[in-house]
Design a protein that fits this description.
The complex is a heterodimer of chains A (464) and B (100). By secondary structure, chain A is α/β, with parallel strands linked by helices. Chain A folds into 3 domains: 4-118 and 262-332, FAD/NAD(P)-binding domain, CATH 3.50.50.60; 131-259, FAD/NAD(P)-binding domain; 370-438, BFD-like [2Fe-2S]-binding domain (Arc Repressor Mutant, subunit A, Orthogonal Bundle). The longest helix of chain A is centred in the C-terminal third of the chain and has 19 residues, at 334-352. Chain B has 1 helix and 9 strands, in the order βββαββββββ. Chain B is mainly beta. In chain B, 6% of the residues lie in helices and 33% in strands. Classes of the chains: A alpha/beta (464), B mainly beta (100). The interface between A and B is large, with 46 and 39 residues. Strand 9 of chain A pairs antiparallel with strand 1 (2-4) of chain B, so a sheet runs across the interface. The complex binds FE2/S2 (inorganic) cluster (FES). FE2/S2 (inorganic) cluster is lined by residues 31, 54-57, 59-64, 75, 77 of chain B.
């Protein structure tokens, strides 16, 4: 591993791999840093090592990842798995951790392809063992062939929930129920966006296909569910909710939830890139142009980390960022960049067609984003409840960062990744302001907790 | 809560999970191993001593902290099983729990 690269790419998912593949072809020094032990990102996790039988059950969208991985392996890009990036600054210095050893690399161009994470949405009982995110269920299945053995309830909103139910069905898992929390008003609200969505009808047909299969298999699918909660003595034993005006309970030791995904912005934040609140996607994302340029020169973003557009779009956005990096490095000129980018830009725009519809259809209701149940734990690490946050606002702390310092919310090991959005929504709700005005928790390095021993390895290196 | 699907040839390693020797598939995360071996929880919280288990499986929530080979606060979803590895539930900020 060198100390300096012309191009460093953070993240080994579809965007990062596609960016590296296109950029390394032109002979520049380029390395991909990835936290995971295997390439593919979360979406194509374990794509190179997965047994064929399991890959088949996961469906054709998953298997697309094989081509991306193969193309990347044929390129000259260096690849560093098990490499955690803990800082990025506006000088394009990248702090990494490998085998408990910290070091700092630099680059002329950095592409952040950090992907997405599940949107954390606090509800009563969400900290109980046995309540997990749907993405966790998918990771267990993809990377380890591990599935629920005693049935599962799936709840939330978004296409992934449907896909996971379908994947579990094929793996012989008992899906006790699928609880959709999107209010029925969403469906009406999404209607005007439907004609454009038809331009990307393959997504619609897929979704409908899953629904039909689940229905045929007799899996109860309930829509317009509200008041979701998990209950149990120390661990999850049942799932409670309201449906058509009635209170219901399903006994289950496992509840997997999904409330859409949001960009992983901790690195671009700590680098100081400008971020904006995206009302339609209900999340913060870094500002960027069509090529992935942020407002900091030499720092680009691609894939879901730049805004949620899905795996296919990530691949094309990755190539655009790769081309832009080559242009910035003087390897190709502007017209070559433009020519090679024509098809990719068209793809990216094409992939956008389905999004406004999906975003409206699966929009998370405000009541879930800013819970009115005071006992609900918001900060999983410090165990701060919604009521304490609302009280802090009433006491005059009316922005997220003030509330953070006052309540310690977001100061545990996850550094606010699980609670920062919920805190912003709660503070906005209680103070009558918009989430946009709230701002996000300030991101500071290290974005992942380092132990003193790990930091010491860095000091040694600098001293040598 | 979870089970390992049998998919042809098993390639296992042995780990000591809360004092019990168990066979788990090579290459899986410690969190995956614990969840597929009847561990309903993997730690208790420092603040209220409540039980917790892995939540995100992708390195963001830090709810999967366990004691691995004697070292506390290891992210079990981002640590991979090795032959002979010792894995224990974590109590609060540090020590392994007695009897799991
Ligand atoms: S399960 Fe969330 S960090 Fe490990």
């Amino acid at each position: 591993m060198k100390n300096h690269y012309q191009l460093l790419i953070i993240g080994g998912g579809p965007a990062g791999l596609a960016a590296a593949t296109i950029a390394a072809k032109d002979g520049i020094s380029c390395a991909v840093l990835d936290e995971q032990p295997t390439l593919g990102g979360q979406i194509y996790r374990a794509i190179e090592s997965i047994p064929e039988q399991r890959a088949k059950k996961l469906g054709s969208e998953y298997r697309r990842g094989k081509n991306i991985a193969e193309a990347f392996r044929l390129s000259d890009a260096e690849y560093y798995p098990n490499t955690k990036v803990w800082s990025l600054n506006n000088q394009r210095e990248v702090g990494i951790l490998q085998n408990d050893k910290a070091s700092i690399l630099s680059a002329d161009q950095v592409i952040v392809a950090s992907g997405a994470m599940e949107r954390p949405v606090p509800f009563p009982g969400w900290t109980l063992p046995g309540v997990m995110q749907a993405g966790a269920g998918q990771i267990l299945y993809k990377s380890a062939g591990i599935v629920p053995d005693n049935g599962v309830v799936l709840a939330g909103s978004g296409p992934l929930l449907l896909l996971l139910a379908w994947q579990y069905l094929h793996a012989g898992v008992e899906v006790k129920a699928l609880l959709d929390v999107t209010p029925l008003s969403n469906h009406i609200g999404a209607l005007p966006k439907f004609p454009r969505a038809l331009l990307a009808h393959h997504y619609l047909t897929k979704g409908i296909g899953y629904q039909i299969a689940l229905k045929r298999a007799g899996i109860p699918m309930l829509f317009g569910v509200s008041d979701l909660r998990a209950d149990g003595d120390g661990v999850c034993q049942s799932v409670g909710f309201k449906h058509s005006g009635k209170q219901k309970t399903i006994e289950s030791e496992l509840l997997l939830t999904h409330f859409g995904v949001i960009p992983h912005i901790w690195l671009t934040q700590s680098a100081g890139c400008k971020h904006q609140w995206d009302d339609s996607q209900q999340c913060w994302r870094p500002e960027h142009d069509e090529w992935g340029n942020t407002d900091i020169s030499g720092i680009l973003v691609a894939g879901d980390g730049a805004g949620i557009n899905g795996a296919r779009s990530a691949e094309h956005a990755g190539r655009l960022a790769g081309l832009e990096a080559l242009f910035a490095l003087g390897v190709i000129n502007q017209s070559e960049r433009d020519n090679r980018g024509v098809k990719e830009r068209k793809w990216v725009r094409g992939e956008r067609h389905i999004r406004p519809f999906l975003e409206k259809y699966y929009q998370i209701p405000k009541k879930l984003l800013a819970t009115d149940i005071d006992e609900t734990i918001i900060c999983r690490c410090e165990e701060i409840a919604a009521g304490e946050i609302r009280q802090a606002v009433r006491d005059g702390h009316d922005n997220t960062n003030q509330v953070k310092f006052f309540t310690r919310c977001g100061m545990g090991p996850c550094q606010g990744r699980q609670c920062s959005n919920a805190v912003a929504h709660l503070v906005a709700d209680e103070s009558g302001k918009s989430v946009k005005e709230m701002g996000h928790f300030r991101g500071r390095p290290p974005v992942a907790p380092l132990t003193l021993e790990q930091l010491a390895t860095l000091k040694q290196e600098v001293a040598e | 809560m979870f089970k390992q699907l049998s998919e042809g040839q098993a390639d296992n390693v042995e780990i000591i999970l809360n004092g019990q020797s168990v066979l788990v598939s090579r290459g899986i995360s410690v969190a995956a191993a614990a969840l597929s071996h009847q561990q309903r929880f993997t730690r208790t919280t420092p603040v209220s001593d409540s039980k917790r288990a892995p939540f995100c499986m992708m390195g963001v929530c830090y709810d999967c902290l366990m004691v691995i080979d004697g070292k506390a606060n290891q992210q079990a979803c981002a640590t991979y099983v090795q032959q002979g590895m010792r894995v224990d539930n974590q109590q609060g900020v540090g020590p392994a729990m007695e009897n799991g």
